[in-house]
Amino acid sequence: MTVMTVGSEFRGGTAGREQAGAAAAQLALFAALWATTGLDAVGWLAGTVYAAGTWALLAAGLRRAGRRSLGPADHVTLARAVLVGGVTAMVAGGVAHGTPLLTGLTAVALALDAVDGKVARRTGTSSALGARFDMEVDAFLILVLSARLALTLGPWVLVIGAMRYAFVAAAWVLPWLNAPLPPSFARKTVAALQGVVLLAACSGLLPAGVSAALTVLALASLVWSFGRDVLWLWRHRPAPRSGSATGLAGAGGAAEDSRVLVSSGAGGRTS
């Protein structure tokens, strides 16, 4: 997982041009999908809305962070975001005969998820903004893959993609859920499992029964992971103080806004 760029080190003021380049690449990908798979108007619309929302949120994040340019790892995540846009367009457009291409785009996006973090660490360009950008791309890809697989296995698969967003909503009501969590290898493993299993199940290469069994396993591990972390957060929640709202716990180190979660995350989960 990436923990990307530090704003003060990038003074070129090129973020707008970089995002414009990514937008052009996104449109080029849509055009390629239209030429090869017959991407319809619904797919174009869904992909365009996704891209516009992504660029708008990233631009707002850059402004808040006082950033004028993206860093090395950010560019990797931006490329992943473009690929996720293609996956989104295909799923929304119901491109059934484009499954091999859908599988390929998803596989590359998941593979690059292991690259941006390494780039950030090697270049010493870690930041909360980069981590948030990376996690949001991860979470949305899982949501889209869940929607794709729900067409064949049933709506219950949507729980995998929706769980992270449900947790975010719950955290607005229960502030103690915002507290950071201690690092966990098990949490990272569960997070990685979701993408791999959904990719394998969506690829059409596995028998339906095997795909269903693996997806059930992934969902069960996700519920366990969420449940374990919610229990930890509950046990370590701050005691209510008279006349004031409950504060945020600080039980573990987390650089980013703890509301920002990955697909299998809770609280301050970063992977």
From TrEMBL:
Belongs to the CDP-alcohol phosphatidyltransferase class-I family. This is Phosphatidylglycerophosphate synthase. Pfam families: CDP-OH_P_transf (PF01066). GO terms for biological process: phospholipid biosynthetic process. The keyword Signal does not apply. GO terms for molecular function: phosphotransferase activity, for other substituted phosphate groups. The chain crosses the membrane at residues 20-36, 42-62, 197-227. Residues 241-271 are annotated as: Disordered. InterPro entries: CDP-OH_P_trans, CDP-OH_PTrfase_TM_dom, CDP_ALCOHOL_P_TRANSF_CS.
